[in-house]
User: What shape does this take?
Amino acid sequence: MEETPFIEAPDESALSRRELLKRGAVAGIGVTALAGLSVDTASAGARRSAVDTVRWVSPRGSLEVMDDYNLVVPTVMGYFKPLNINVKMSPGDASGNLPQVAAGQHDMGYASPGVLTASVEAGVPVTSIWEMIPSQVFDFVLPAGSKIKHPRQLRGKTIALYNIGWKAIVDPMLAEVGLNPKTVKYREFGPQWNQAVALKLADAGLSWEGLRAQLEGTAAFFGSGNAGLSFLIGSQWGSKGPSNSYQVRTSDLDNPAKVDVYTRLLAGSVMGFEFCRVNPRAAAQIVYEQYPGMQKVITPQVAVDSIMQLASLYATSRRLPPHQYGYHYPNAWAKYLNTVYQLGQTKTKVPVAKVLSNSLVKPANAKADRARARRDAAKFKLSAAFKKTVLPKGLPL
Assistant: This one.
């Protein structure tokens, strides 16, 4: 942590954009290509003959985040081995990479609803099969001292984004609170978009749960006088929109063999969720130990805070009827699709059935060996560093 270049910055509030982009990658947690790693169950000793490989691509430029613990934990714990699944994880380019999924370069994407919807309307043959968070995962991050208390107050303000493609994420959030997206200004900052907010080069920026904890944990490194970032948390100001989901080629859903492969992968994911539900600190430790780059940026406590923010949202559909991980709520999607149509993000009102399928949800949940995951989590031995961590309050699992 001491190696961050932000500690001795003389006057970062006056940095130009050129100077800003030369600074370190702390503010780009979750997107920067820290180390294009591939988490592969084969390398974890879980491979055997006739293993089916699923090539999964992240919506972020880095795998060094807590967000994907539901794939990392079962990889490390060997849960994919009896399922005969090999998960090959790759960083993306912040676009969602759905055309590459459709073209066969990847098997499964994890794009945002805006990217998914626009892609489907544009003829990209992909379908969402697994709703990771059937509620709002996105937030707005604000600089220290901001007087903004609600998204409606963003009228006339500048919002920092990684790239302009993220406008498709933010516009529906603003419309949901009655704010015309045309009344805000968007500005691209690349992987340093959060740093731009901290340095007050923008009034707000897009953030999300999990990343929020990491930004809070590294706020002190954004420069003298700029610590103490604040957030408008999407799930707290009433946003009901869906969030990122897993997508596959639509044609694969007509192939029983492919459906079986994805069902087995998702069953392993359910085991990752259940492991974390029993022992969040253990899940955080497992992910943290896989990524040396992450260890240089966040502490074990920040890792725990981050995974808890994510796990609470991932478990939403487990807590609500039909009590199944991965379930898409069609009514919520219908409202979202109507919103993006009214905003002009889509030229037509895309039917819900053309965007998503719940056909794999029940089989995947049924196939998961939850009991094994729970046993393993209960007996997992924490390291000395993670024994010192505490679970944040008020986040149900």
Notes: The two ends are 30 Å apart (CA to CA). DSSP finds 17 helices and nine strands in the chain.
